[in-house]
Design goal:
single chain; six-stranded antiparallel beta sheet
Length: 368
């Protein structure tokens, strides 16, 4: 009858324990010192069997048996040490190749919503929505490796055009052209288009200045969330792209939408770093020009008060229009601030025009 020796049972338990420990390690269920302690116990369980092998046990007593016993002891130790190194070695971090997502700029498209409320391009320009979209592209950039990226989360922020720091609206789940979900994956050489907003067609064709924004509902089976903006001059718009597991590749892109309700038209511009620099240079040069005109206007005695007030009013109006156009009402209010009237050196009287001229000098110095 077949009998199992105690050494056989212990060795069998040691092998089974080793297999279980390796499986648990690879599943990420057991790590750290406890894993190594249990491996050492499994190694000890196998020692009685290997030291009881006939090659060791039947050897001539003395140096030969001792040598063979030590050989098997260190063989077990070497085997389990190799297993310990294998299971305890942490895998090195997998380097995420950086994507190269670039903005291709804006587009003016005619769109319609299909029965699943997904935006599609339309050939019916008389009845389709006139949409403002922005395209993003994961562009190859040889010789650098460009990686694919998943779960890119876009947001769209709409700021008051006349108060650039005032956030009017935020979309967390924007709509995309030809796609149902707001989150997006970019493979190499792939393009996706965000729908920034739309203008509805008039019943008699033409342009309707009411601006519409659309957002996916958290429940995709629900209708899109639509918001209407009537009689607005436009928006400063920021598109935020949350890219990477920890946002390490995230981007922001700025745009400006201007709506002309008088001429039934709109403009949409991508404000790149270069475009912002150009606009600031233009604004600064115009400010300096108006400061020079103000110097000529306020640095000499007034002989014709009617003409002076006409020129001063014209000067203030165009200065005001420039500031509102570029930086909105907060900066404009600083120009118009006459809470502390300054005396005109040529008349001795406190003068709001002269005070506003001094305000403009301060503003111009800040932009130099």
């Amino acid at each position: 009858m077949f009998k199992l020796a105690l050494s056989d049972v212990l060795a069998f338990c040691g092998v089974i324990l080793t297999i279980i420990l390796v499986v648990l390690d690879k599943a990420g269920k057991l790590k750290g010192p406890m894993l190594l302690i249990l491996l050492a116990i499994a190694a000890l369980l196998t020692l009685p069997l290997v030291l009881g092998l006939s090659w060791v046990a039947d050897a001539q007593p003395g140096l030969l048996r001792f040598s063979r016993g030590m050989f098997m002891f260190f063989l077990v130790g070497l085997t389990y040490s190799a297993i310990a190194v294998w299971v305890s070695a942490a895998p090195g971090p997998v380097k995420q190749e950086e994507p190269n997502i670039v903005c291709l700029g804006d587009d003016d498209l005619h769109l319609e919503l299909d029965r699943h409320e997904v935006f599609r391009e339309s050939d019916d320009s008389d009845h389709a929505l006139r949409a403002v979209t922005v395209a993003f592209y994961n562009e190859p950039n040889a010789p650098r490796k460009v990686g694919s990226i998943s779960n890119v989360k876009p947001q769209i922020l709409y700021y008051h055009l006349d108060s650039p720091e005032q956030l009017d609206h935020r979309i967390h789940r924007p709509c995309r052209l030809n796609e149902e979900h707001s989150e997006v994956s970019f493979d190499l050489d792939q393009v996706h288009q965000l729908v920034i907003g739309c203008f509805e067609p008039k019943r008699d064709a033409g342009f309707n200045p009411h601006f519409l924004t659309y957002e996916n509902h958290s429940d995709r089976s629900a209708h899109l969330v639509k918001t209407s903006w009537g009689h607005w001059r436009g928006f400063g718009i920021t598109v935020k792209l949350s890219i990477g597991e920890h946002g390490e590749f995230s981007q922001e892109h700025d745009f400006e939408l201007r709506i002309d309700t008088n001429y039934h038209s709109f403009t949409f511009e991508h404000l790149t770093h270069e475009r912002k620099r150009q606009r600031k240079e233009y604004f600064t040069s115009q400010l300096r020009q108006f400061v020079d005109e103000g110097n000529q206007l306020f640095s000499k005695p007034v002989t014709d008060w009617t003409r002076f007030y006409q020129d001063a009013q014209e000067w203030r109006n165009k200065t005001s229009a420039l500031i509102i156009e570029h930086y909105g009402f907060p900066l404009h209010e600083r120009l118009y601030n006459v809470s502390e009237l300054k005396a005109n050196p040529h008349t001795g009287a406190q003068d709001d025009f002269h005070t506003q001229f001094l305000n403009l000098q301060v503003i111009a110095n800040e932009f130099d």
